[in-house]
Design a protein that fits this description.
The protein has 524 residues and is an alpha+beta fold. Helices cover 13% and strands 30% of the residues. One of its GO terms (molecular function) is protein kinase binding.
C-alpha cells in the first residue's frame, strides 16, 4: 500500500516533485520496516498496559457524562448515538416538505431542511461515536510489565537463572537423529518428542512439562525433579525395537534427512517417503505397523511437509517428488488416514497438483493459515503456490543462490530459504527480497519462532544460533555440541529447543525469545 509498484501516473505536487511511493519517516528505511516497527509499537507491553484506558474512552464509562468531561473526551452532540433520528433524515417525504410547512415557535423545535442537510454533512464528514458498551472501568490486560513484580514470575526473563543446556539424551543406536517433532501440548494423550534416526528407528519420548519457572502454566512441584524428556522405554530397554523399526525398503539413492518424515500433531502416526515404489506410507507409532500406502507420483517421493493442524487434527500434507511435481493431500484427524473417506483409503486423491519446477523437489513448506505452499527444487527458484494449485510467483534468489535446501515460512508471510554453501534469504510473500546473509556452516535445520520474529539454525558445526528474522541480525550463539545438528523443533510453549544430533543423541536447550525482544533489551 505504500509502493507504486504498477507505476501509475499519480500527478505532480506544487513543488514539481512527481507523486510516487509514499514518503516514509527517517526511522523506516523501507515500507516493510515502517509496518514492522509500527506493529511492534502497537503490540508492545507499554501499549498493552494502556489498552484498557483506550477502551474506557471509546466504548466505556469515559465516553459520556462527567467522566468524559474530565477526560477531555467530549465531541459534537450530533456524533453521539441517539442524538440523530436517521429515519427522519433519510425519509424522502420529509425532504420534499416545503419550508413553510415546518412549525416553529418558542416551545417547539422541528427539523428544517437546512438543518437536515447540516446533520447529513456532519455525519458524512466527522462520523459518529460508537455505542457505549461499558459503564464501569475496563480491567487492565495482564502483561509482562505487571507480572514482573511477582516473585519468580515466568515472564521476568531470568535468563541468568537458567542454563543453556537442560539435558542430553543418548539413544543406544549411534544412527544420526534426522527428524525431531515436539508435539508437547498438555491435552494430548501422549505429549512427546518423537525422534527418527537415519536407520528409520523412531522413538516416542514422553514429555514432562517441568521447564517453566515456578508459577508458569503446567508447572507442578511433584514433577520438579524430573527432566523434561523421558526416553521411550521400548528403546531404552531394547525390549520392543520391532515396534519402532521401519523395515520397508527405501530407494537406495535417497538421502535420509528431516524432509523424509512427518509426525501427526497427536504423535500417533509417522508419514515416511523415499520408497522405491514411488509411494509414501503411514505408520502407527504405537505398533510400528503400516496403516496406509499412498500413491500419486510418477517417481520417488523425496520430501514431505505438514501444515499446522485444525481442531480435530486435520491438516494438509504436501509430498514432493523426483517427477518435479508436488501433491497436496488432506489428513483426516478423525479417521487417521490421507483422504476424507475411510472406504476409499487405498486410493486417496490429492487435493491439488502443483507444477512449475524443472528438477527434483527437495524441500517444501505449507501454511494452512495463508493457504500457501512454498517449494524448492534441486536447482532453480523456489515457487509459491496456493493450496488450490495455482502458481503465484517464483522467488528468485540473489546471485549464487541457486540450490535451495531448507524452507521455513511464518504465518506472518515471511519465507526464509537456506541455499547451499551457507546462504540465507528472507522473502516477503509478495516475492520481495528483504534480507540475505552468508554463514560458515553447512546448515541442516532451520525453524522460525511462532511469531515469525526469530530464526533458529543448526548444522554440521554443532552450534545453535538465533537470528532476528527480518534482517538476520545475530542474537545469540549457544555452546557448541560435540556433533553436528541434523534436526530441531520447539516445544509448544516456545521455551525448549530440542535438537537431533549426528551422534544419535538429542539435546534440549532452554530458549526464551523474550530476552531478545526489543522491549526486554530496553526496559528490563
Amino acid at each position: 500500500m505504500f509502493v507504486n509498484s504498477n507505476g501509475y501516473n499519480l500527478g505532480v505536487r506544487e513543488d514539481e516533485i512527481v507523486v510516487n511511493d509514499v514518503g516514509l519517516p527517517p526511522w523506516a528505511k523501507k515500507p516493510e520496516d515502517f509496518v514492522r516497527i509500527n506493529r511492534m509499537a502497537l503490540e508492545s507491553e507499554f501499549v498493552s498496559c494502556q489498552l484498557h484506558q483506550w477502551i474506557d474512552l471509546i466504548f466505556g464509562y469515559k465516553q459520556r457524562g462527567p467522566e468524559a468531561v474530565r477526560a477531555l473526551n467530549v465531541f459534537h452532540y450530533l456524533t453521539y448515538e441517539g442524538s440523530v433520528n436517521l429515519d427522519s433524515i433519510t425519509d424522502p417525504v420529509l425532504r420534499e416538505i416545503p419550508e413553510a410547512y415546518f412549525i416553529r415557535d418558542p416551545h417547539t423545535f422541528l427539523l428544517t431542511k437546512d438543518f437536515i442537510k447540516a446533520m447529513e454533512a456532519q455525519i458524512q464528514n466527522f462520523g459518529q461515536t460508537p455505542s457505549q458498551l461499558l459503564i464501569e472501568p475496563h480491567p487492565p490486560r495482564s502483561s509482562a510489565m505487571h507480572l514482573c513484580f511477582l516473585p519468580q514470575s515466568p515472564l521476568m526473563f531470568k535468563d541468568q537463572m537458567q542454563q543453556d543446556v537442560i539435558m542430553v539424551l543418548k539413544f543406544p543406536s549411534n544412527s544420526p537423529v534426522t527428524h525431531v517433532a515436539a508435539n508437547t501440548l498438555p491435552h494430548l494423550t501422549i505429549p512427546a518428542v518423537v525422534t527418527v534416526t537415519c536407520s528409520r528407528l523412531f522413538a516416542v519420548n514422553r514429555w514432562h512439562n517441568t521447564v517453566g519457572l515456578r508459577g508458569a502454566p503446567g508447572y507442578s512441584l511433584d514433577q520438579a525433579h524430573h527432566l523434561p524428556i523421558e526416553m521411550d522405554p521400548l528403546i531404552a530397554n531394547n525390549s520392543g525395537v520391532n515396534k519402532r523399526q521401519i523395515t520397508d525398503l527405501v530407494d537406495q539413492s535417497i538421502q535420509i534427512n528431516a524432509h523424509c518424515f512427518v509426525v501427526t500433531a497427536d504423535n500417533r502416526y509417522i508419514l515416511i517417503c523415499g520408497f522405491w515404489d514411488k509411494s509414501f506410507r503411514v505408520y502407527s507409532t504405537e505398533t510400528g505397523k503400516l496403516t496406509q500406502i499412498v500413491f500419486g507420483h510418477w517417481d520417488v517421493v523425496t520430501c514431505l511437509a505438514r501444515s499446522e493442524s485444525y481442531i480435530g487434527g486435520d491438516c494438509y500434507i504436501v509430498s514432493g517428488s523426483r517427477d518435479a511435481t508436488l501433491l497436496l493431500w488432506y489428513w483426516s484427524g478423525r479417521h487417521h488416514i490421507i483422504g476424507d473417506n475411510p472406504n476409499s483409503s487405498d486410493y486417496p486423491a490429492p487435493r491439488a497438483v502443483l507444477t512449475g519446477h524443472d528438477h527434483e523437489v527437495v524441500c517444501v513448506s505449507v501454511c494452512a493459515e495463508l493457504g500457501l505452499v512454498i517449494s524448492g527444487a534441486k536447482e532453480g527458484p523456489c515457487l509459491v503456490h496456493t493450496i488450490t494449485g495455482d502458481l503465484l510467483r517464483a522467488l528468485e534468489g540473489p546471485e549464487n543462490c541457486l540450490f535451495p535446501r531448507l524452507i521455513s515460512v511464518s504465518s506472518e508471510g515471511h519465507c526464509i530459504i537456506y541455499y547451499e554453501r551457507g546462504r540465507f534469504s528472507n522473502f516477503s510473500i509478495n516475492g520481495k527480497l528483504l534480507a540475505q546473509m552468508e554463514i560458515n556452516d553447512s546448515t541442516r535445520a532451520i525453524l522460525l519462532s511462532s511469531d515469525g520474529q526469530n530464526l533458529v539454525t543448526g548444522g554440521d558445526n554443532g552450534v545453535v544460533e538465533v537470528w532476528q528474522a527480518c534482517d538476520f541480525k545475530q542474537l545469540y550463539i549457544y555452546p557448541g555440541c560435540d556433533a553436528g545438528i541434523r534436526a530441531m523443533d520447539l516445544s509448544h510453549d516456545q521455551r525448549t529447543l530440542i535438537t537431533g544430533m549426528a551422534s544419535g543423541s538429542i539435546v534440549a536447550f532452554n530458549i526464551d525469545f523474550n530476552r531478545w525482544h526489543y522491549e526486554h533489551q530496553n526496559r528490563y
